[in-house]
Amino acid sequence: GAVVSQHPSRVICKSGTSVKIECRSLDFQATTMFWYRQFPKQSLMLMATSNEGSKATYEQGVEKDKFLINHASLTLSTLTVTSAHPEDSSFYICSAKRTSNEAFFGQGTRLTVV
Amino acid sequence: AQSVTQLGSHVSVSEGALVLLRCNYSSSVPPYLFWYVQYPNQGLQLLLKYTTGATLVKGINGFEAEFKKSETSFHLTKPSAHMSDAAEYFCAVTTPPNFGNEKLTFGTGTRLTIIP
Lengths: 114, 116
Prior knowledge:
The complex is a heterodimer of chains A (114) and B (116).
Chain A: E1 4-7, E2 10-13, E3 19-25, E4 32-38, E5 44-51, E6 57-58, E7 67-73, E8 76-81, E9 90-97, E10 103-105, E11 109-113
Parallel strand pairs in A: 2-11
Antiparallel strand pairs in A: 1-3, 3-8, 4-5, 4-9, 5-6, 7-8, 9-10, 9-11
Chain B: E1 3-5, E2 10-14, E3 19-21, E4 24-26, E5 32-38, E6 44-50, E7 56-58, E8 64-68, E9 73-78, E10 87-94, E11 105-106, E12 110-115
Parallel strand pairs in B: 2-12
Antiparallel strand pairs in B: 1-4, 3-9, 5-6, 5-10, 7-8, 8-9, 10-11, 10-12
């Protein structure tokens, strides 16, 4: 099956700093990548959709300047949480989609802002 | 617009008993339906999917689900629960590729607990 690698799996950062999370499709080219945020014991909330070489499409209520998404190639998308604050602490998950509309998920990143 | 409703945020079954997790969907176009499993602090793993064709789909770990258009349902079942099945389960819906909607819409999840 298709493999999506997300890195890092856990990160702790100080308030005010920025954190970058990488999402790579290892054995296929992803036409589209998605970034989700998951609060404890809740479902996944879609943050943004990104296509290679174009600007990401953000969901309503998601701050574009706070959550910077770069989709530099067909196998790599990055999410940068800028000027992180404790309320940004969460579990972030990426997924990558092939042409079949089937999405494959990364392992998730637990972000803790102290 | 699409939506997914998972009835029962928590389900407990005894080891060896039938597992039934309920999912109902709403979609204005023929849906693609998915069940994912999530273990603590991990991403989502695909259990099974329905796109077209046979309405009874079999997935990994002995799970299966049946697409019932008349009931707008896609319930997940497993004949005999195992301790390793304890996890969070998410039902999700999207549209076929030619409809231009790439997004997955998730249900709120069902936490499955297995009683020894």
